From TrEMBL:
GO biological process: removal of superoxide radicals
Enzyme Commission (EC) number: 1.8.1.9
Naturally occurring in which organism (per UniProt): Aurantiacibacter zhengii
Family: Belongs to the class-II pyridine nucleotide-disulfide oxidoreductase family.
Cofactor: how bound: Binds 1 FAD per subunit.
Matching InterPro entries: FAD/NAD-bd_sf, FAD/NAD-binding_dom, Ferredoxin-NADP_redctase_2, Pyr_nucl-diS_OxRdtase_2_AS, Thioredox_Rdtase
GO MF annotations in UniProt: thioredoxin-disulfide reductase (NADPH) activity
EC top class, as a word: oxidoreductase
UniProt name for this protein: Thioredoxin reductase
Record Pfam families: Pyr_redox_2
Subunit structure: Homodimer.
Entry keyword annotation includes tRNA-binding: no
PANTHER family: THIOREDOXIN REDUCTASE 1-RELATED-RELATED (PTHR48105)
Amino acid sequence: MTTHRTRMLIIGSGPAGYSAAIYGARAGMEPIVVQGLQPGGQLTITTDVENYPGFADVIQGPWLMEQMQAQAEHVGTRMMWDTIVEVDLDGGSPFRAIGDSGDEYVGDVLVIATGAQAKWLGVPGEQELGGKGVSACATCDGFFYRGRKVAVIGGGNTAVEEALYLTNHSDDVTLIHRRDELRSEKILQERLFKSDKISTLWNKTVERFVAGENGALAKLELVDTVTGEKSELAVDGAFVAIGHAPSTELFKGKLPMDDGGYLLVEPGTPKTAIPGVFACGDVMDHTYRQAVTAAGTGCMAALDAERFLATLEFAEKEAAE
């Protein structure tokens, strides 16, 4: 077993983790980023990215993550190809983590950027057509379906919000829900039912996503949850909106979380309940879930980590004198 020591340990490697690393490295904290199972996070499975500031032309998600990683390395970040399986937050700084490799990682501050994953239906065609008509983020990809027929699958706040958002781009939005009533807030339901651009299919589940001759999504195969009757719906885009699951298993019982499993932070900051431990990106954000907001909170985590270390070092110096 090898022990890797750093002033700043970052678990996770999406926009939040890489941004924290860039700022941390430039502040002389010589960060270590433990990449995890999906280096680059959700953007590595996103094709066209049109809403990240600074790029006039459409860019590719994997390329953007490659650039962020290269930038972080260029300013002094060490990237580790490992997955953290255990963390020790007891006793305060320094914090320890154990990787799947058996290596130990020790950091004076810990930045958690493990992200979140969209929940999927797990039906045929869903994975194969990801980025080819199937998406889990209307805010990210809705623009590409301007003037086309789209569907949203789900019945909670997220699904209704996505359906309403898509009316900015499409006049033909179908909400598909497996029950006969929505779980979303009443005010959202009122807005949904008032829209003449949205129709609702009740008691329906998607059994299969079907590609057309061009290899992109062409239709949905549906089944009625009451009668079992099968039907089809022609669509150009389908948005799965059944929620997200934050990657916080490591921290259960060690850090406070909300009912959805997202890490709780001091409002307006990335500070968790344990001094020196910071959370950024989708692991603590169930509202926005955008690459640019994740990167922003990564920056915040690094700046607060730098201040924490300065205070810690001052206290240690005072105690030694």
